[in-house]
Write a structure and sequence with these properties.
Strand order of the largest sheet: 1-4-10-9-8-7-6-5
Structural class: alpha+beta
Order of helices and strands: HEEEEHHEEEEEEH
Strand content: 35-45%
Number of domains: 1
CATH architecture: 2-Layer Sandwich
Helix content: 10-25%
Number of helices: 4
Shape: globular
CATH class: Alpha Beta
């Protein structure tokens, strides 16, 4: 799917450039993809072990890294990403997000598919993540690290194994369709990006 069509599928309009002034530090580079782990995560005080990620095919791809600060607690940021109703509220698109390790995630009306590999609320999320128009069987590893700061939360996001042909659209898409929308939602709810 061409970049404009991919953006349109996520937003209902064609816009491929991140908004000016977005408080995001992004680093992009190439990296041989690393396999998604099978570490244990925690949920509600109990340990849950992820099953081996057999369907995640190691591949060559590119890695991206974003660092964003929000004036909200780590739990608030975690819930925006991991609670279906809150995810749908800030994206304005259907979302089904399982709160469990090995649970499935669908966002932007099914354009995004993922499986939770590791959950450590409210500090860390690791998902096997893909867009539906990626090559069959190709999953990236998406990791959110949430760190409490006196002024809110610093979120470090790393995504490995992004297909070369989709890299720019995905890199820009996180800013436009996630970080900017999360910031706007938190501002309406009384917080703002740090």
């Amino acid at each position: 799917m061409p970049q404009k069509a991919r953006t349109a599928a996520m937003s209902g309009k064609v816009k491929t450039k991140p908004k000016a002034g977005a408080a995001v530090q992004a680093k992009a580079g190439t990296k041989a993809g690393a396999k998604a782990g099978t570490k244990a995560g925690t949920r509600a005080g109990t340990k849950e072990k992820a099953k081996p990620a057999a369907e995640i095919r190691p591949s060559q791809g590119r890695s991206l890294r974003h660092t964003v600060r929000f004036k909200a607690s780590p739990q608030e940021v975690y819930d925006l990403l991991m609670v279906s109703e809150r995810h749908a509220a800030f994206t304005h698109h259907a979302a089904k997000v399982s709160p469990k390790v090995d649970g499935l995630v669908s966002a932007y009306g099914g354009y995004i598919e993922a499986r939770n590999v590791l959950l450590d609320p409210p500090r860390r999320i690791v998902q096997a993540w893909r867009a539906v128009d990626w090559p069959e069987g190709w999953y990236s590893t998406a990791t959110w690290e949430l760190k409490a700061l006196p002024s809110g939360t610093q979120m470090t996001f790393i995504q490995d194994q992004v297909p070369d042909d989709d890299f720019e659209a995905i890199n820009e898409g996180w800013v436009e369709h996630y970080w900017d929308k999360m910031t706007a939602y938190l501002e309406r709810k009384g917080g703002r990006k740090a």
